[in-house]
Amino acid sequence: MSSTEPSVFTRIVAREIPAEIVFESDTVVAIKDIAPKAPVHLLVFPKTEQYRDVTELAAGDPTLLAELVGVARDLAAQHMGGEFRLVFNTGESAGQTVFHVHAHVLGSPDARGHLSEGSLAQ
Ligand code: AMP
Question: Is the pTM of this model over 0.90?
Fold first, then answer.
């Protein structure tokens, strides 16, 4: 992080601001997105904010990236019938607003859910 302010996700990890935490380990946290874009919309992120985006995480700690993906899989099994869309917005022009790497895990409560086919945006 180039910013000196802690990210919103670091503040959630520190319980400085509230969130619906659905998973927490020593290294990874998952929460419900405050402004869901799908029937189920979770965010999975490392506790460390040292990586701004998925490209930095992949280069700096691929094991941690794999851990995020594993947490997304497990949460999708619990909350979305096992099938899900995984999105890493990377850069401002791609819609990234929080520069503490995070995965959006999007889906429906059951495997016959209704994310639009052929659309990444909705
Ligand atoms: P991005 O735009 O890819 O950086 O994603 C940031 C996401 O964080 C957005 O989907 C926001 O709705 C979500 N978000 C921001 N603040 C909070 C918060 N306090 N609790 C839960 N989700 C949040």
Answer: yes
Domain boundaries, the chain: 8-113
pLDDT of res. 111:
59
Work out the burial of residue 65: count CB atoms within 10 Å of its CB; fewer than 13 is exposed, 13-18 middle, 19 or more buried. Answer: buried
Is the C-beta atom of 86 inside 6 A of ligand 1? no
pLDDT for res 1: 46
- Give the pLDDT confidence of 72-89 residue by residue, as tens digits: 999 999 999 999 999 999
Q: Tell me the CATH architecture of domain 8-113.
A: 2-Layer Sandwich (3.30)
Q: Catalytic residue numbers?
A: 102
**Residue 9 phi/psi, 5° resolution?**
-75, -35
Report which ligand 1 atom has the smallest distance to the Cα of 31: 21
